[in-house]
Design a protein that fits this description.
This protein is mostly helical. About 65% of the residues lie in helices and about 0% in strands.
């Protein structure tokens, strides 16, 4: 089956890493480190301001320009979504899939369960990012680009947690036919 095959990436890891590094340099030079989790708070503040502007104006945190104005970070999020869509179309990798081979090998064809797990995982990641006052892209990629010492233990913890999570969610390796 076509969807059971794993396709080669259109860009190698070295070229992708160099492009990410270049993007970090440009971003830091123009406006500051990359990160997207704050923009969820900005979106929430925009909605709240439309319904209760007095509350937003009186709030000591979300009433500040960082959360009330659609700045460069907001347009970064828009650009990421548009750029990802254009890249998927340009490389002919756009396809709608409700499950994938790894999910089916470990959890069957339950689309509802996959959507629920994906939503819960996304919620936990965003919650953790807000508790930490920054997301993994901000701490991982941007901290390394700035040679921050905090990037070292964070990276070890990030990859350790990611490997543990992957092992727990996908304990069985699917049989790939090609």
């Amino acid at each position: 089956m076509e969807e059971e095959r794993v396709r080669e990436a259109p860009l190698g890891w070295l070229a992708g890493g160099l492009l990410l590094g270049l993007a970090q340099i440009v971003a830091i030079a123009l406006s500051g480190p990359l990160g997207v989790s704050t923009q969820f708070v900005v979106a929430d503040t925009q909605l709240l301001e439309a319904t209760n502007p007095a509350y937003v104006a009186s709030h000591p945190l979300i009433g500040t320009p960082k959360y009330t104005e659609l700045g460069a970070g907001w347009w970064l999020v828009v650009g990421l979504a548009v750029g990802a869509g254009l890249a998927a179309l340009a490389t002919k990798r756009w396809r709608v899939a409700t499950t994938h081979v790894w999910w089916r090998a470990n959890h069957g064809n339950s689309v509802g369960k996959r959507l629920a797990v994906a939503f819960a995982g996304g919620f936990l990641i965003l919650l953790g990012a807000r508790f930490a006052h920054g997301c993994t892209s901000g701490q991982f990629a941007s901290a390394w680009a700035q040679l921050a010492v905090s990037a070292i233990p964070f990276t070890v913890a990030l990859f350790g947690a990611a490997m543990l999570t992957a092992r727990l969610v996908y304990p069985r390796t699917p049989r790939l036919e090609g």
